[in-house]
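Entry for the shared binder. Reason: the reviewer on the internal report wants the predicted structure included alongside the sequence.
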Amino acid sequence: MIPINAIDASWLAIDSEDTPMHVGSLQIFSIPENFSETFLRDEVERMKAGEVVSPWNLKLTKSGILGRLLSPSWSEDKVIDLNYHVRHSALPKPGGERELGILISRLHSNHMDFHRPLWECHFIEGLENNRFAIYTKIHHSLVDGVNGVRLVERTLSDSADQLNMPGPWSIGPKAKRGKPNLQAKPELRGLIRKSFDTAYEQASNTPQLVKALGKLLASSAYKHDDLVGPFDCPSSILNTRVTHARRFATQQYSLDRLKKLATDTDCSLNDIVLFLCSSSLRAFLLERDSLPDRALTAGIPVNVRLSGDESIGTEVSFILANLASEEADVMKRLNTIKRSTKAAKEHLQTLPKKVLIQYTMLMMAPYTMQLLTGLAGRVGPAFNVTISNVPGPKHALYYSGCKLEAIYPLSMIANGGALNITCLSYNGSLNFGYIACRETLPSMQRLAVFSGDALDELEAAVKAKQKRKKKTNGVRS
């Protein structure tokens, strides 16, 4: 058995029919003209003959709710039905982006069977312009965003000449240590020692945790700096109860275009991403006469996984940022976001890595309790929206000779947070994946359109500022 850490166990505890805690990716490939018409069908059948490795072969030792809550652990499933986990579908003609989006929305809505390994892989043919898609979903307790991207990247090749690639389920993370003994039973002496070691470590870290949490709460209560704390935000239509049906939308931008804006405004790329999300949400809520007078805040996962660590499970902390959504002025909105993220990152950097997981658990404990007790979506939110930015492959990749044209991330939502925006970079582009509750936010594509408007607006504001500066310098000289 493999014990499940506290953060990953929380994803399992929160999981329900209306709030499934799986994450996913949508990859779109182009098929070379000289390939057989039965190429995809043949590939799927060939890959089903491959082996299944960790984490794809892990299932919950006890699948019931009590087992997930009290002592969750993974065990190896010796008999895996790949005909269940691997599906082959076709889009109705013409297979456009709209039809693909409808199918992915439905697939991502479906809850997974907790008696089996928690993943599915769907091969979807019939996409226009001789393309196909692969949609993969896996439970968040098995992978985080960064590790999920690494798993996807390892299923692909740098060369179009490499054929007969194995299925994703046949390629696991790179082995960091020897293969764990899944069947070994822990000895009492080892459990006692581990308990004492854990207690000692927690006690020694307590002063740092108390100081960090105290500063966060004080900043939230007294507004004396740019640091944002939990519950320091208004309620909005984003923070209601959710149902199981999902809406999925996408957007794609050139990384060079966004990086130029970051350079021109002395911001990080992530600040530009947050600005686009904030501005599109502002327009979206204004259109519905639902924009709060106070600024929305974003919960932002931060990768704390060490370089080279590809172990299963979640290795993230969390920061909160002011989105300045109430601010009409474009540059003021961006600068507020910039100051807020800078303060949050500096605050997080005061803590050593060994404390970060405990800090994250304590900071998010009130929100987690809302989810576990059913209060989420009925009382004030800890933050308004989750926004992630995950680095992906920098160069073109191929799957059995087919070029990967785009890859879009799909995350999860929960009660009290009906929208999640996740970005993933690939081969010179930044791909946005919007996932939302179908009933709460039915017009997801409007957010994607508004983010494009926001990008144009920011570029215009930067050019106007540069023109004024140049004119002023000319007068002075």
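Summary line for the report: The first helix runs from residue 6 to 14.
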